[in-house]
# Entry
Amino acid sequence: MSYSIFQSPVKIIYGKDSITEVGKQAGSYGKKIMVVTGRSSSKKTGALQKVLEGLKKNNLEVLVFDKVESDPSAKTIRKGTEIARAEGIDTIVALGGGSALDAAKGISAMCTNPGDITDYEKNILKNMGLPIIAIPTTAGTGSEISKFTVITDTEKKIKMLIGGEAILPKVAILDPCLTIMMPKNVTAATGMDALTHAIEAYISKASQPMTDIFALKAIELISRNLPKAVLDGENIKARENMLIGQMYAGFAFSNASVALVHAMARPLGAYFDVAHGLANALLLSKVMEFNRPACQERLFQVAIAMGEKVEGLSTREGSLVAIKAINNLFLETGLPKSLKEVGVLKESIRDLAKDAIASGSVLLNPRKPSLEEIIDIYEKIY
# Structure
């Protein structure tokens, strides 16, 4: 088609102490609220308590579903949906990292659509899900403003990408105070996840002028603030910039999609439980190295956004600077540097590659990879 479509939540509330708006916003959509969150982190940080206080001040009936694991499974979605339906829930508050927000979207969708969540990996959700108020406590996924969710089918060992307007949150609340308690490794992994979203959206074949604007600004904010946030978790300005940057990245990839990095990251999570952000971080620079011949001009702009000195350089030289800058930023995070370190078995690489090449994300990659080329990338970081 000759035109583009850009989608985002109805309302975005951001800044320090913006969490105080949760009750008012949730109450505008219903009276029976389900808070979907992880098993412990939001309790430890006090984020859950702040949300519950805000909801109860507005005289809302609240039920907490705190069974969400890392990389939420179809089984968890079924359980949450069963409870939500039985209790007559009409609004969902999603609180946590990407896993909690993904689970909330899955539950929202299945409260209003027939069948099982696994039916919608390749089928469109016909009915709008329950209204979602999304509150991230990490700065990485952009899920609070995206129309996608990733749910793991543990039986088939695949990560299902499910999307559509039906699960786009109604309201996103971004309070940097909720991210201060993030451990260094989580800060690093989620930050690299957001950087991957931005870079892949920018080089995606589905990129458009509006997504380009958000992608480049996201790259600028994330690359210049991630080391600060990792080094000093209480640096509220760095935390705020990371939260805004990952939101911009969410705008970009939710409308322009991701590409080969994500295609290769998903099976790492499905087979070996490698956290999504960490998987992206491990793959990013090597995949960009592979992509570089097909998107040199775009990577030149990535280098500029990252603050690298490229004056007087050719497009080719500037694109090489971008690759080096991406890798240097990854090295600064202190994350594991190889697939072996995170428990991946070398004999599984061919199977991982087969799953990756079957992903729809590969179709939007600027350079079409062969199975052997994907295997080679995995092996380079093994």
